[in-house]
């Protein structure tokens, strides 16, 4: 090995996985407790090194923690582990006591949370949001929780802006999610923000879950399981996914299911939770993200292949969805950044001579 190469390697920063600490409290729901380990325990880099280290801690010294099931779990770390976290996740618990009843922390819980360093990313799953709110982390911020608990959350914490209709909310360094499976969506979202869509999609495939459900999607869909005697919109969605680069009219999607536009639109929203146009835009943003991360295609070509028609249209949609331009997004992940995306970089000159698509997924 040459001296120059040895010098370069000696100056390279030491690899350290992002540490996720999961706070397990009495009454914790085992499903929610296991989500961070399942999602963050999978991603690896090109050298096979785990990108995250996940540990579980209690608010007391190491020992057993009750769950809401007929078994307890043995936790190996006490609250001091919170001081080592890059991300702290608080899953749901059914034994929050004064936190849920009065909106105040117990002395024991307050002492545990005091270990968290300033700047640590915080996240909650379902009723774990009550802990963040009682600690003051959500003052003046938007947040969500399971729809059945949202009214109480707003009543106890009027300083928090509660949105009961979404799967999760990303407010930068504090993220909150609705209940149960929405915790999976939130954790996949954090992996996607940290390491890009390819890594997050690989985790989703291994976990056998959809790779992406937008945080703004409705969490309470009145007909989540269609009547087997009724038609669904599944075929139309598959058809559209194979043609994202083409103009797609709402009537074209409806024709795939032999429905009127009105019936199709209603059935689509019942099944998916968003309108066909919103869904198409979400899929096109995901396609653009994948192409920006994994190819050297020009911005104009990415915009075309993702179905946005023009680079300007794609830029507007990525700014809305991610708060960042296509060029800045590509630069972030090509540079191997692992701490999320920052906005502010421009896209440079754009070719706006191509005709915008007139479809249900992008503006005219």
Uncertain spans: 220-228, 337-359
Strand content: 5-15%
Q: How are the strands of the biggest sheet laid out side by side?
A: 2-1-5-6-10-9
Distance between the termini: 58 Å
Written as H for each helix and E for each strand, in order along the chain, the element string is HEHEEEEHHEHEHEEEHHHHHHHHH
What is the gyration radius calculated from CA atoms?
A: 22 Å
The number of distinct helices, counting runs of at least 4 residues, comes to 15
How would you characterize this protein structure?
The chain is of the alpha/beta class and 364 residues long. It is built from 15 helices and 10 strands. The strands form 3 sheets. A 6-stranded mixed beta sheet has the order 2-1-5-6-10-9. Strands 3-4 form a two-stranded antiparallel sheet. Helix 2 links the parallel strand 1 and strand 2. Helix 2 packs parallel to helix 7, helix 10 crosses helix 11 and helix 12 crosses helix 15.
Quick structural overview:
The chain is of the alpha/beta class and 364 residues long.
What's the SSE blueprint?
Layout: H1 3-11, E1 18-23, H2 30-40, E2 52-57, E3 63-66, E4 72-75, E5 87-90, H3 98-101, H4 107-113, E6 121-125, H5 129-134, E7 142-143, H6 150-156, E8 161-162, E9 168-170, E10 174-177, H7 182-195, H8 197-207, H9 234-241, H10 250-256, H11 261-272, H12 276-294, H13 299-305, H14 311-322, H15 326-334
Parallel strand pairs: 1-2, 1-5, 5-6, 6-10, 7-8
Antiparallel strand pairs: 3-4, 9-10
